[in-house]
Specification:
elongated, 4-stranded antiparallel beta sheet, Alpha-Beta Plaits, alpha+beta
Length: 183
Amino acid sequence: MLVAFQGELEKQKWEARPEVLQAFGTGARFRMREYTVLAHSIQVKSVNQVNQTRAIEAIYSQNPKLRGSIRIVRVGWSRKTLKSGKRLAALHIGVAEPDQANLLIDTGLLLDSELHDCELFDGSCYITQCFKCYQYNHTAKHCCNIPRCGFCGTAGHSSQDYGKKDERTAHYCIPCHKQGHIS
């Protein structure tokens, strides 16, 4: 259920009343619109997204000027970052207002004695590639094309069965139709 309020003060008044959430049942919570900023080249081990309160407090403690001017709602890593085991990655920082996102982008983020550049996260920048035919803008689940090898580009065998994975001269990119690199 979405409830809209007439202004920030009205919203804060209703958020302060515990019976409001109780009326909607267990598991109900207040959620606000979030503006996500990426802070680049952060050590993944330095921010534990599981304990949000502690992670946000660690950011505030290293950036005291942000406290009071930026309300950090959430921090986290992309699923791809967590799956691949990267050492450095872009930290996703959710803030409450667009001006807060702009302030973070302008000032950067200080973590572990390093100043990190920040930029606005744009979800439409994610590229979707099919790992059945290796074309873009769809996934293997919805693919009607012939399966191809991601290394040599031919049909008839899978990428796992390809024997020349280390030979760059045998590689062929399906989307750009060029030799020398994989799809």
